[in-house]
Design a protein that fits this description.
The chain is of the alpha+beta class and 595 residues long. Helix content is 23%, strand content 30%.
Amino acid sequence: MNLFQVFYRNRNGLSVVATWFLLFVGVALFFDFGGRIIDPYSDSKLQQLKLELREQPNNDSLKHQIRQRDQHVRQQYFRRKAFTWWGARLCLVGAVIVFLASRRLGPMSDPSRIQIQGGDPEPSDFHRNSTWGMSAVTVLVAACLMVAVLLQRNGQQDLSAALAASRAVEDSSIERDQADGGEAATALPEIQNVVTPVSAEEFASNWYRFRGPRGDGTSAMSSLDFRWDADTGEGILWKVPVECPGNGSPVVWGDRVFLASADETRRCVQSFSVTDGTLLWTKEVEHPDPTRPAVEVSEDTGYAASTMTTNGQLAFAIFADGLLVALDRDGNEVWLRDLGPLENIYGHASSLVLSGDRLIVQLDQGSKSDDASRIDVLDVATGDAVYSIAREVPASWSTPIVANRDGQDVLIACADPWVIAYNLSDGSERWRCAALRQDVGPSPVFSDQHVIVANESPGATAVRWGGTGDVTETHVDWTAEYSIPDTTSPLIVGDLVLMLTSYGTLAAYDADSGGDPLWEIDYEDNFQASPTRFGDDVLLVGETGLCWTVRPSEDGCETITESNLGEDCVTSPAVANGKIFLRGREHLYCLGPQS
């Protein structure tokens, strides 16, 4: 007897069981729907606590209550979402079983083959009863299918609402009229900041983001006059293991070093002592939606390629799946936002940027036609969005920078084909230039005269400040096409612009005129770490851990020292208090002159 015969002979019992099963699941879903949390961030108690915190910004007890309530509401939301997900599918399975089992009620069943006590039924009665039975089952199945589809759609809408709330992006966004024809940013309610303001001087004195305070690889040190050697221990002040992988660079604020790490199953943030490398804490970051599939990333990118940022009070990290977390100095979660899933063929790698009380997240993804790319600008204290900028660009891996022009902060972001300047105050566009192609990885840099962008194809471009709208034909002062990087970012040293390719060629260009390289030098290593400036000296860190301190000029490049880290390194240095912090493949290093 095969499976079909078993089903056929027991279809009547199966139909009854499946019907009761459907009723049970339906009632459970009905009562669950009544208590559903449509928007976890509109919880009345949570909102009331936030209002109280605005009036009492220094009340630590209120902050703790907000964190606890926020975590509770989000857990309840995703628990109900998972219940709906399974309930909808159980409804579908039950409906299919009822439909298949109840086909015996239809008129296609032969009444002559059914033995009924009390005589044979009249054919007309049989067909009338079977038609009524089939109609009832059809109505039940159709109703169950409709309920399942509606629950599934509601579950998706609830999730979208939660993500929208986590980004604080209003559904009813307004379009700005822009004189330069740029893209409009989504306007959002103003949120009062409850984090103590951080001065520009404090930001400038800490290596709080990728490539330092200006995002251009310039340190406050006037020279680099020491070397290090893994074999002898020279110049290595301390070295500590980092147990979880990551390709993001370290950031430093005061007496703390911060690192983000992740693999397929784990995300964590760690804080180390600047003094001796003591591990102060490790925070495991759990995704609030356990049903989310793992993202696919390339081995070169990994699950934690983005460099963190910090303002000394909070530390921020983003992972390849789009999960963004803010932690306090003790490693406690302050807020969590799910900005994913992110569609990126290599994995998300753009680093986080802080400017005052705003956290900038470049989320270029997919293809240009997907309309998925955007820049989210968030309030650092709450994680709520100040605005979101839609970008008609494909995926990129570049990190934006912020430059101050005429008293206004300007956000510069790169992706194929545009380098675009936005007003940081409201996200409106100032100008754009078609200067890039293909997979854009290097970050922009700026001088008083130019914004300089680079990618292996089509090359480097210097865009003059001061334009509006599309400035491709009016404000490009020079271009260059030889020895242009595909991963590392340019470095400005006086009147020179240095370009370091991934295959080990360092080239120098005149910052005012570009053209052909003034000189080119080849190094016996590959490079992913961007060059870093120490006054007139420049540090180059190779993938194998070999390091060169060089002194470039118009006439050439002098090698000052050669060093050896002792392990692979693809991250850029952090520099603070006369020391260099480097993340190797397995260790975090503090390098400096030994007393």
